[in-house]
UniProtKB/TrEMBL annotation, chain A:
<keyword id="KW-0547">Nucleotide-binding</keyword>
<dbReference type="InterPro" id="IPR017871">
    <property type="entry name" value="ABC_transporter-like_CS"/>
</dbReference>
<dbReference type="InterPro" id="IPR027417">
    <property type="entry name" value="P-loop_NTPase"/>
</dbReference>
<dbReference type="GO" id="GO:0016887">
    <property type="term" value="F:ATP hydrolysis activity"/>
</dbReference>
<keyword id="KW-1003">Cell membrane</keyword>
<protein>
    <submittedName>
        <fullName>Putative ABC transport system ATP-binding protein</fullName>
    </submittedName>
</protein>
<keyword id="KW-0472">Membrane</keyword>
<dbReference type="Pfam" id="PF00005">
    <property type="entry name" value="ABC_tran"/>
</dbReference>
<dbReference type="GO" id="GO:0005524">
    <property type="term" value="F:ATP binding"/>
</dbReference>
TrEMBL record, chain B:
<keyword id="KW-0175">Coiled coil</keyword>
<feature type="transmembrane region" description="Helical">
    <location>
        <begin position="160"/>
        <end position="181"/>
    </location>
</feature>
<feature type="transmembrane region" description="Helical">
    <location>
        <begin position="266"/>
        <end position="285"/>
    </location>
</feature>
<dbReference type="Pfam" id="PF02653">
    <property type="entry name" value="BPD_transp_2"/>
</dbReference>
<keyword id="KW-1003">Cell membrane</keyword>
<dbReference type="GO" id="GO:0005886">
    <property type="term" value="C:plasma membrane"/>
</dbReference>
<dbReference type="GO" id="GO:0022857">
    <property type="term" value="F:transmembrane transporter activity"/>
</dbReference>
<feature type="transmembrane region" description="Helical">
    <location>
        <begin position="240"/>
        <end position="259"/>
    </location>
</feature>
<dbReference type="InterPro" id="IPR001851">
    <property type="entry name" value="ABC_transp_permease"/>
</dbReference>
Amino acid sequence: MLKLEGINKIFNEATPDEKIALDNINLHLAPGDFVTIIGSNGAGKSTMMNMISGALTPDFGAVTIDGKEVTRLPEYKRSQFIGRVFQDPMAGTAPSMTIEENLAIAYSRNAKRGLRIGVSRGRRDFFRTSLEKLGLGLEDRFNAKVGMLSGGERQALSLLMATFTRPSILLLDEHTAALDPSRAELITRLTKQLVEEGNLTTLMVTHNMQQAIDLGNRLIMMDKGQIILSIDDAKKPTLTIPDLMTEFEKIRGEKMNSDRALLGS
Amino acid sequence: MFTALFGSVEQGIIYAIMALGVYLTFRVLDFPDLTVDGSFVTGAATAAMMIALGYHPILATLLAIVAGFIAGCMTGLLHTKGKINPLLSGILMMIALYSINLRIMGLSAENAIVKPNIPLMNADTIFSQFQVFWSNLGIDAALTSFIKNTLGISPAPSTWGTILVVLIITLIIKFIADWFLKTEVGLAIRATGDNKRMIRSFSANTDGLIVLGLGLSNALVAFSGALIAQYAKFADANMGIGMIVIGLASVIIGEAIFGTKTIFRTTLAVVAGAIIYRIIYAVALRIDWLDTSDMKLITAIIVILALVIPQLVDKRREKKRKEKRQMERLEQHREITRLQGGKNLA
């Protein structure tokens, strides 16, 4: 479903700030895979997500989605088959537009936009049933401007908007990190539910090791632009946080800077 | 006085189409587009040139709309493909259009390449053609005598036809704008002004939408210019100076008075704002110590006040709210201390 082959990216090349962001990344995802990604700050997790979404293009290497090579395809064209939820709850929705208008924008993702009315009666029913699944009562606030919603509500809406057109790939970039613990838990639960329902091929970056272990069927750990550890679906169910720490020490020969990874939400 | 005010309302309704264009860029796309000063004249020049050459005024007006659309798209391309800052893109296009407009008007002259103005004194315009049809109906006389009998006012405009035709045109444009902003493309344009990152992640080409939005906006501005040229019976290279500020003043005045709860209401507010602006203009001109040329200063002051006053009001409200909250908390503390003090004594 998703293939990254030999992806390299260097930022600020030939300056004192030169940084190897991605160093020969290879990753294959089968349809329905749910991969969680952990790693310290600057490990290249977000850069890798941006390579897949098209916000950045690799210096070398190829990105293939659903058998199509998309390495040079601009972000807006690629997003036909990629759903995304950002860390910032404000980033995934249009604040001065209503809930139903936001849903209509998401609904037109994989069709050419024309002069049809965005929120037609038929679609409104579909939007309503989709919103009911969130269990937040948003279906009764159809005409509320999204800017009036709380961060958690906006993130739940973003999640719904990213998934309900069944994208080929779902990218979640620390999408619970900016929320308080109870909200984060709600979003985590909804993520699990929506991914399972749509059987979506998903990549999720997180700082929270427990979340990385609880969700998904595979796990990868990144460090200094490389994938240093890959846990497949056979080993994942029995994985624990201490396992991950020892693995890291074995590979890198140093202790993991784990405070944020352990405690971070 | 009545005639002057009546004329202002007529003009205000025509300028409302320009104001809707400004609303589309400033508010919906969040793009401060200064092309307007140039594209307004482009519309007027194109229509006047065509009419002076003997073409049908409706064809002349349609071509003016197309010319405005192209001008707006150019500004959009300068910004999106040329990566030029939005304000500068508009200014560059505005300056370029000044020369282009002189050339457009020059097309109507046999012995000159450029022309600073075109008079349309005895030419056929949309309004003169409508007047021929209208005066046959005899509604003017009926309306005037009706007003005289019921309200007891005798002054009446020379015709009710013009205000009717401009009102119908502007309302049609308003309803089309309302509908368009609810279509899939319209929603995408609104989201482009609201959150570019979000709409890109839903497979919309923001560059294309910005170009389209600017094109449509300037098409409306040029349409308004074409109608004003036919209404005033001349086109002039300088008739667009300050037009963007007038458009902005109309949008701000309208929004402040009528609110922005829905799109339907906001576009109505913009239309009303344009009419109110023209009435203020007419009244200001009747003040003895003011000169016509002071109007640009007054317009600038209106826009400055409309931008600054809401901030001050908000700040004041915020301060009042905080003070009130603080007072309540102090009161609570005092209450608690008093109760505890009472207990201790007992």
